[in-house]
Specification:
The structure is a homodimer of 218-residue chains. With 218 residues, chain A is mainly alpha-helical. The first copy, chain A, has two domains: 63 residues, Arc Repressor Mutant, subunit A; 139 residues, GntR ligand-binding domain-like (Four Helix Bundle (Hemerythrin (Met), subunit A), Up-down Bundle). Chain A has nine helices and three strands. In chain A, a hairpin with a 3-residue loop joins strand 2 and strand 3. Chains A and B meet through helix 3, helix 4 and helix 7 of A and helix 3, helix 4 and helix 7 of B. The first copy, chain A, binds a DNA duplex (30 and 30 nucleotides) through helix 3.
DNA sequence: TACTCGTATCTTGGATCCAAGATGGAGTTT
DNA sequence: AAACTCCATCTTGGATCCAAGATACGAGTA
């Protein structure tokens, strides 16, 4: 569930994080089969924690399990991409709406600082920082399940962004929209903040969908 | 993730289903510790599939894992109840909105048949049938991830409903609202269907919250 | 009497072992 | 030549074994 829990965590939990990152980053290619023995050797452990980790990742939709036939990295799928952004819009609007009444300038400052880092970061770091930016704005809503859900959705969105090798103009446009959202937050303009967030997410989805189809036809 | 996948499934998958139901039904009490050995004996298997099942259920938020300290059934929490219904509203409105353009009379008929069964069912079956009713209406949206998400949310809502021992008038009111939603669907009145669904969910949340606080103070 | 430290016991987590299902190829048959 | 069957091999799934962390209890001391 991608909880924000940062405590020590057992080995399996670490493996979940590492394999999840590997899938998001595309090091583990979509559709490739994951053999337990291989992963065990790769992460120098036994098959047992790998098995548990794969089941967790299956729950997040990043791998697909078939009984007695093993696991494959979830394939890239235009429908899933669309669905992901639709769900993100619904979930993030809710979070934004609930967070806004409790959003302090300190919070917005923190998000603004993250946006500054995004501006000077590359594609590899964009997803992580982008997620942090959004979650920071939503954090005051105090809804742990909702935030975990959003975090998980961002992970798969990040995967699609890297897969499509999103262009620079995508990052620039996104940054502009971030600044507009921050501005609306500082002004405590609820309607604008919600509207801008909605557009920000939906248009990002459209753009990535476009990139994906483009890539598929080439 | 509570996929609708109904294929044979390995032992672990079956265990997940059984333990999930036991938690929802309250047979496994909130806060009680789950010892692997006990569960293994109870389901006549070894600890191994139990361990995997617990991790999956942790992902769904039905159990809480603490490294080296085992698992407990997720405690009842008024905040989580509220959050659950807020998330349901957001997710189900999205599903409804996407499904309506593709909703055939056959689909609505099927949902209506489920509603008839709900009317003559008891508290124990309400949750399952209620979930089926809603999912049936949303199914034409063709969004597997979204539907799985909604299904999972319904599971924890069901748990709270049973825990609060929801009164009969709750079930009656819910049935009336179901019929109103069906009516709006037959009329293809999009606005009304969305509005009624929103109220249906939010008021159910309020009611259960009320019951829960009542129970807590007694 | 209350508090602390140490030990015995319990439970989880990881590794290994074994059985069962799936895959691939060779050989046979039509 | 194509297809089917049977068998060797590979991989997963479940059980058992062992180590390490956590808990509980009791002895000893202030």
């Amino acid at each position: 569930m991608t909880t924000g829990d940062t405590r020590k965590g057992d080995r399996t939990e670490l493996l979940v994080r590492e394999i999840r990152q590997a899938i998001i980053a595309g090091e583990l290619k979509p559709g490739s089969t994951l053999r337990q023995e291989e992963l065990a050797r790769a992460y120098s452990t036994s098959r047992m924690p790998i098995r548990e980790a794969l089941r967790v990742l299956a729950g997040e939709g990043l791998v697909q399990l078939a009984p007695n036939r093993g696991a494959v990295v979830a394939p890239i799928d235009a429908n899933e991409l669309r669905e992901n952004f639709e769900m993100r819009e619904a979930a993030e609007l809710l979070a934004m709406r609930l967070a806004l009444p409790h959003l302090s300038n300190a919070h917005i400052d923190k998000a603004a600082a993250l946006q500054d880092r995004i501006a000077s970061a590359g594609l590899a770091e964009f997803g992580r920082l982008n997620k942090a930016f959004h979650i920071t704005l939503y954090a005051p809503c105090e809804r742990p399940r909702l935030l975990a859900h959003i975090s998980s959705l961002h992970d798969v969105a990040d995967r699609y962004m890297r897969f499509t090798l999103a262009r620079l103009d995508y990052l620039v446009k996104s940054s502009d929209e971030h600044r507009a959202i921050l501005d609306a937050c500082y002004r405590r303009d609820t309607e604008a903040a919600l509207q801008l967030t909605s557009l920000h997410i939906l248009e990002a989805g459209k753009t990535l969908e476009h990139y994906l189809l483009e890539k598929a036809s080439s």
